[in-house]
């Protein structure tokens, strides 16, 4: 009875799985996300912890046996500042935040982002801890002075439940960790001008670490003191584990609020002269890494176009089904995030565009152009990450059969969809089971899936569409300004 908890940006979920990897109990509750002027996006740590308590208590009440362990995963990046007791000294700054746009632009011009990338393989973006720490160090240093730890969502919740100050190696991977040594690179920290804040970075926990609920955490969740708790990996690598990614070259597409493209590798080497974007995420297996390209495009763009056109998300599939590939000449660049793009290139000034519009353009063409452009962005990311094997997919976007077919056709390969949507929680539970010495049969868990095949007759048209996308992107990058 391991309860997997996935603490997302807008939703916290708790799931318990049977021996075949099917969920037997689940609960979810929304989280508050505060969108403020200046591109600021924040969350309240107390509220997030309360959502965890809500879903854990709800699931535990339905189980036929006592809970045996708690497995945490959740959103990564951002900046969750706490004191020694785990209390927030500033509202948590989300990975969606854009307040450090100017910091990133200055670092790109000065070569700081290139220097950090060459040392750690991490491409920084406005919502990553490095840029946010630098912004606060200049603008609000008193906030950092009050903090004991500058961490992330999962370790912030862990501290409130166990009293432990630590961080999973996956979260620590961006932007200061050398993936080969799994230790912080002090020269990368120095390049960002943050050496004097080095003490805020918790040391990564050893592989297979297990923590225990303290009295406060036990009272909050209604579970016994001393219950085993694992924390991490965060949601991107947890989803890869939960979906079944196991062989080097295999990849996973997470079509969520943003578009996370990851490829498993057993080689921590990276192109140090390449464009400083993406990241190498350490996994629970010290011999494996995930080359991640987490683009800022995704279902948030679909929500935007639905609101703009006055349609519901349920209308997306019929519009796609009744339109032709190529959207009658309408093309799009999908960069709608206020903080620009972070993979497979980094540009805080990246913005969306539609072209080829006319008086004959309808809703179907606009929707299809956006959906196709997000699929082209996924291909761009996977080419940079080195996808060569089986591709898996998860996230809210996979609930659209028509959009999934577009992804398969654009990427030119079949896509495996796990039957249970809670792959982040699945990955957390699998990680916890291994740490506790009671691993599940991963082959049985991976068997519950379906495959979306490529439609050969669509591939050539999408090859032309992808070439047009790349040409439009190259032209637009010279025009973007903050």
Give short descriptive properties of this protein.
482 residues; alpha+beta; Nucleotidyltransferase, domain 5; seven-stranded mixed sheet; 37% helix; 19% strand; carbohydrate metabolism; Erythritol kinase
Summarize the structure in short:
The chain is an alpha+beta fold.
What value does the Rg take, in angstroms? 21 Å
In the sheet with the most strands, the strands line up as: 16-17-15-14-20-21-22
User: How does CATH name the architecture of the domain at 2-237?
Assistant: 2-Layer Sandwich
Q: Fill in the CATH topology of the domain at 2-237.
A: Nucleotidyltransferase, domain 5
CATH class term of the domain at 2-237: Alpha Beta
The coarse overall form would be globular
User: Quaternary status of these chains?
Assistant: single chain
CATH H level of the domain at 2-237: which superfamily? ATPase, nucleotide binding domain
Give the helix tally: 17
Proportion of residues in β-strands = 15-25%
Let me know the average pLDDT.
95
Distance between the termini: 50 Å
Overall structural class, as computed from helix and strand content, comes to alpha+beta
The stretches of 5 or more residues where confidence is low (pLDDT under 50) are none
| Helix percentage | 25-40%
Largest sheet: 7 strands, mixed
* Beta-strand segment tally: 22
